[in-house]
Model the fold of this input.
Amino acid sequence: MSHLTLRLSLVFTLLGSSGLAAVTVKSGDTLFRISQRTGVSVARLRSLNGLSSNLISPGQVLNTGGPSAQPLRALPKPATKHPVKFPVGSASKPAAIAVAARRSMASRYTVRPGDTLGRIAGRGGVSVAVLQAANRLSGTLIRVGQVLVVPPPGSAVSSLTHRIPALPPTMEARTVYTYTTVGVSDTFVTLAKTAQLNAKLTPAQFMTLNRLSSAWVYPGMKVLLPRRVPVPIPPRPRRRAVTLSAMRMLGIKIQVVRVDLRHRDVLVSPVLPRRGIGSSARVSILARLSGAAAVINGSYFHPQSYIPAGDLVVQGKRLSWGRIPVALSITPDNRARIGGGAGGPSVGSGAGSQWSGMETVVASGPQIVRGGALTHVYSAVFQDPALFGRAARSAVGLSSNRDLLMVSTHERLTISEMGKIMARLGAQDALLLDGGSSAGLSWNNLSVLDSVRSVAYGIGVFPGYGGRRYSRS
Done:
C-alpha cells in the first residue's frame, strides 16, 4: 500500500529549556528522559557533552548549558520528610532571584496512606488552617490519592483568600504550558496576567522558560507561558498504566497495548526520528531513541519527503498540516477523543484545524469503528486502492476517553477485518494507522513486530512521565 506515513526529532528539541548547569544520570535514565526533565533537546545534550550516540551510564554528569540554579517549575513537588525546600546552586544575583521566585510558589502533594492534614502541613511549613483554606476544606478529613495545594512556607490564611479560587469538588488545577503569540500591545506584564488561577510568573522564570536574556518581547514572537487551569479530577486507575498482550482474534494473531489514561503521569506522544520531521527510522529505532515503554507506527507520510500526510501536534505545537479529516487527540490531563478538530469536522487548513487545548494530535484513518459499530463509508481523502487490499495492519482505538488501544499485526487482513477486531476489543471509535511494511510495534525496547521499512514517526507511551504538560493555544 502507499505510504503517505511521519516523525519526532526527539520532538522536545522544539520545547522549553533547562535551568540546570548539569544533571547526574540515574539508573533507568535515557537521554530522552533527561531531555524531558530539563527541556533541553537530545541533540543539544549530545552536542554539549561530546556524545557520539545516545548511550549514557548511571553516575555520568551531563552539561545542560543552563545556569547553576535549579530549574523553575510552576508546581514543584514537596519534600516527603521535611518542609518544602529548594536547592541554591549559585550565589549570583539571577540565581538568588530565581530561588526567591520558587519559594513564593505553591506546590501540589498527593495524599499517601498514613498521611494526615497535620503531617502534610508540618512537612510543608504551613499551618493546618492554611492547608484547609488553600484547598477549601471544611474539616481535616482527606483521602489517599487526593491532590492538595501546599502554599509556600509561612503563608497566612488571610493571604490565600483572594489568591486561590474555589473549584468544584470534581475539579483540580494543573499547570499547563502553552505557546502564545505576542500581540502588538503585549509586554511581559500583560503576558504574565494571562496565567490563570494564580500561576504567577516572575521575569526570572519567564526568561529561563524561554531562554531569553531579558523579559523584553516583540509582536509576533512565540513565547511559552504556564497557566493554572481547572481540569476534571481523573477517575481512579483501573489497571497498570500500560500493558501488552498477544492474542488471536478472527484467527489472526495480534499484539494489543492498553493504556489507562486515568494515571496522571502517563504521556502519549508522537516520537520522531533523530533528525525530526522529514527524516525516518524503523519502529524499533524510534523506541530505542525515545525510551518509551511502547511504540507503534504512526500514520501516512509522503514516501520521498517523509512529511506526515495529516495534522501532527506534539507537546502543543503543530508540526505538520494535512487533509486527513479525523484524528486521535489528547488533552494535557489525558482525556482522549477520536474525531475532527475542536471547531468542526474538518482538519488541515480549514475550520477546526487549530486543535485548541490539545497536547497530542495524530491525524490518521480511515475511521473503521464509530460509536462501537463498524463503518464502511470512508472519506474521499482515502482513494489509494492499495489501502483496501489485504495487508499488515496497525490501528488505534478508544473504549472510553480514558482507555486507549494500540493494535498491530503482521498478518494480512482487510480494513473490515481490522475494524471487527477493534470492535471486539471494546473500541467505541478506532482509526487505521499506516500498514503494510510500515506496521510495527515495540515494547520496552524489544521489537515485538518491527516495521520492515523506515517510518516518519511513531506513537509512544511514557508511563511515569514527570515533565511539563502542554496545550495548543
The mean pLDDT is 80. The longest strand covers residues 171-181. The radius of gyration is 23 Å. The domain at 20-63 is CATH 3.10.350.10 (Membrane-bound Lytic Murein Transglycosylase D; Chain A).
